[in-house]
Amino acid sequence: MRYANNPILTPRDLAPSQESMKIECLLNPGVFRFDGKTWLLIRVAERPEQREGEISFPLLDDANRITVMRVPSSSPELDLSDPRVISYKGSDYLTTMSHLRLMSSTDGVRFAEEPGYGPIFGSDAYESYGIEDCRVTLLEGTYYLTYTAVSANGVAVRMRSTTDWKRFTDYGLVLPPHNKDCTLFDERIGDLYYMLHRPSSPEIGGNYIWIAESRDLRHWGNHRCVARTRKGMWDSARIGAGCAPIRTGEGWLMIYHGADGDNRYCLGAMLLDAADPSKVLARSDRPIMEPSAPYELTGFFGNVIFTNGHIVEGDRIVMYYGASDEVICRADLSVREILESLK
Amino acid sequence: MRYANNPILTPRDLAPSQESMKIECLLNPGVFRFDGKTWLLIRVAERPEQREGEISFPLLDDANRITVMRVPSSSPELDLSDPRVISYKGSDYLTTMSHLRLMSSTDGVRFAEEPGYGPIFGSDAYESYGIEDCRVTLLEGTYYLTYTAVSANGVAVRMRSTTDWKRFTDYGLVLPPHNKDCTLFDERIGDLYYMLHRPSSPEIGGNYIWIAESRDLRHWGNHRCVARTRKGMWDSARIGAGCAPIRTGEGWLMIYHGADGDNRYCLGAMLLDAADPSKVLARSDRPIMEPSAPYELTGFFGNVIFTNGHIVEGDRIVMYYGASDEVICRADLSVREILESLK
């Protein structure tokens, strides 16, 4: 059930990270409980203010500060043929740069920034185009952040951990390009840690959900494909895991996003085997949630709902999600109802 | 210096794995010393005999046996618009399937199969389109095979190990798609094992050489980009490591392949820092070897030389390589001369 006063956060609710930037979108928050409150780790996508006759785009400089590159629109070294990227002097840059912003709430719907917490910016050459779509997993008393690190080297998965949300331990890139939508399971299964991830292939293969295992959370192996896209269905073009799967009596319940060839993003569920989470026991034939509210149908990129964060309270899943790649919303789901829908 | 009687092996020198198949190409051998001899682990690409009015392609059946799919050329579910793959009922298949064949030699130029050794076929659903371009690294007394595993799940890196070339230990996929050109270093550096690998990205990023580290050879992390392609140069489109880098007094000498936009494959070298092999100290401005002999200029796919195997004897590198994706050749190089060329 969608929260009646959705969206709960829009770009106007936050100040940009610096004066020369404008917040274009709030996206896809990681979600966790900390210090008695509900927290969102929101992806904030900013774009430099555009000036007449110039194309400008953001990147990290050598000192890892966000800077704005300004190029005359008439530059012959500029190539704007691909709308997702700005190609300049043979390198590709993103039109926006994302960082992560922490906001907390006592009621789960009114969120505010707290002094001393965040923001979290890209930190080096593997994050020079920004960091995106962070999952947060509380595992054995430590919070693990798995997020998409974007740079000219590619799109890869990086991990950091924290216990106080002020000091972070860096694990480097735990998965090489091209990979995103990575979440850790929130407990070990047997002796091993597990993660779900979503590699992409330029040929043979696709945008499928994979699983990997680890003994130390730093090094990962035994990669196996969990689920593929399904031709002619709502999840025909790409799929990716949400946040940590929910342990139920019937197995691991995983909420995932699926997109079709029209880039319409819906949410579905899979039930993974309790002892071997590489095995899919059941999967949504139809979405458990699809874009229908006005703020989900229209926006920066309409027809998109995307989640990578929730809190579980008994049967209730308090889910936060990005709508139309522009605003943050909340919906409450029922574990039992989702499991029923998988039968 | 090329061996005068190149090529040393051609498709006619081996029998196909079964009657319905024809060997199209011999490619890119892994190379090692074992039992007092030099051994090649050759990639053999086979294609089903084609019949009038049919398109046929190979794949592993559910029992992991190579079978031939035959489809009427007129089938509306057949899509041949991409020459690399056969698309049928929405899935992509390769026109050929590769397996690995072992051959040994006492003089390094006349190779023969030995009863009881090989061939090595794809073994499960991650290898249903074949296995390719195997590097062999002798590390702490065990041979490690790192090769490209191809299936509808994608193109990934799998590892097996052996001490006797008859019994093998499977490590599963050590890297998820899209990845190939993976080689282990042949010793630990500090406490860690290292591998070079080559992920590919469908957007942002490219076909670059990366490095990863491990404590147990099964689980890999701390992925870092070692080298990118270079615009306007011989290695502008894709690069990939050969076999295990050679330890020299000046650092790790790595032979690699580079291709340009015309798919012309040459060989070059990089010198990597002895203590931190993610650092490139020097790199070939011009190739150390480029297609020039007739068998390198013309063949199944002309203008290609590609190596992933050699033996080092003092200053001499006895290198084996695939030429024109069709025949196996030998060339002897000098460590000292390559190092000189990097200055």
Automatic annotation (TrEMBL), chains A, B:
Q: Where are the transmembrane segments?
A: none
Keywords, sorted A to Z = Glycosidase, Glycosyltransferase, Hydrolase, Transferase
Task: Output the Gene Ontology terms for molecular function.
Answer: glycosyltransferase activity; hydrolase activity, acting on glycosyl bonds
**InterPro entries the UniProt entry points to:** Glyco_hydro_beta-prop_sf, Mannoside_phosphorylase
The answer to whether UniProt assigns keyword Nucleus to this entry is: no
Does Ligase appear among the keywords? no
Report the superkingdom from the record. Answer: Bacteria
UniProt xrefs under Pfam families: Glyco_hydro_130
Q: Where is the signal peptide, in residue numbers?
A: none
Q: Which SUPFAM superfamilies does the entry mention?
A: Arabinanase/levansucrase/invertase (SSF75005)
Provide the family line.
Belongs to the glycosyl hydrolase 130 family.
**Would you tell me the protein name for this molecule?**
Glycosidase
Query: What is the organism of origin for this protein?
Result: Alistipes dispar
